[in-house]
Design goal:
- The chain is of the alpha+beta class and about 150 residues long.
- The chain is built from three helices and nine strands; from the N terminus they run H-H-H-E-E-E-E-E-E-E-E-E.
- The strands form two sheets. The chain has a five-stranded antiparallel β-sheet. The chain has a four-stranded antiparallel β-sheet with strand order 3-8-5-6, with no helix packed on it.
- Helix 1 packs antiparallel against helix 2.
- The longest helix has 14 residues.
- The protein is globular.
- The two termini are about 25 Å apart.
- The N terminus is likely disordered.
């Protein structure tokens, strides 16, 4: 799988530049980038304060009904940073992928495991871990709600 950095940066750059969907070749490029990652990011909210637990409940319902084992939404976006809310029913998660650049994972509820090579980190509510700069995956041992904080090139 390809790095997450390019698709995130591409999607954000197009949104910031145009404030609306891209057209023509730009739309095709954005769609290809999104398809490579296959995260299914929903649009972020434009509110100043995001109720992560309320949005998380909505996403968990969506994740349970879907086939990807997850539902995600970018909840905070600003230049150089994105916070992504990740709802994963038990057994779901993010498949093996390259590190997106500096990032961390915080667990809000449930129990999830970050796996990179032969190392793993168990996350419980209130815990956080730096994501290593190598291929990794995230697995939900129980229904889990996590926040992925990703630093993006400015």
């Amino acid at each position: 799988m390809t790095s997450l950095e390019d698709p995130f940066a591409t999607l954000l750059a197009k949104e910031q530049e145009q404030g609306a969907p891209a057209t023509g070749g730009e739309a095709a490029q954005r769609d290809r980038a999104a398809a490579r990652v296959d995260l299914g990011l929903s649009p972020s909210t434009e509110e100043d304060i995001v109720d992560l637990l309320a949005v998380g409940e909505e996403l968990m319902t969506k994740a349970r009904a879907g086939v990807t084992g997850r539902a995600v939404r970018a909840v905070v976006r600003q230049s150089g940073q994105m916070l992504i809310l990740l709802a994963m029913p038990a057994g779901g998660g993010l498949p093996d992928h390259d590190a997106p650049g500096p990032a961390s994972l915080q667990c809000l509820s449930g129990q999830a495991v970050l796996v990179a090579g032969d190392r793993s980190w168990s996350l419980r509510p209130g815990s956080a871990v730096m994501i290593p700069q190598e291929r990794h995956e995230v697995r939900a041992l129980t229904d889990s709600l996590c926040v992925l904080a990703v630093s993006l090139p400015v």
